[in-house]
From TrEMBL:
Region feature (Disordered): 1-25
Protein name in the entry: PhnB-like domain-containing protein
Domain PhnB-like: 17-61
Basic residues bias (residue ranges): 1-13
SUPFAM superfamilies (alphabetical): Glyoxalase/Bleomycin resistance protein/Dihydroxybiphenyl dioxygenase
A Pfam entry, by short name: 3-dmu-9_3-mt
Domain of life: Bacteria
Amino acid sequence: MCSLSAKKRRSRSTNRSNARNDAAYERLSQNGQVYMPLGEYPFSRKFGWVGDKFGVTWQLTQASNDQ
């Protein structure tokens, strides 16, 4: 018999200042997985997507008023 169950994933998004994003990205990516490195993309001045060591994925974006 075959089971077609999807693995549950938890996800979080944050919109923070550059300094807080950099620190959070460093902590979350330790012993985790980087899906998109923290950097500039066509849709965001600064964006990063990581999975932490517990399996929670995080999407970090730059606050719109932060330079």
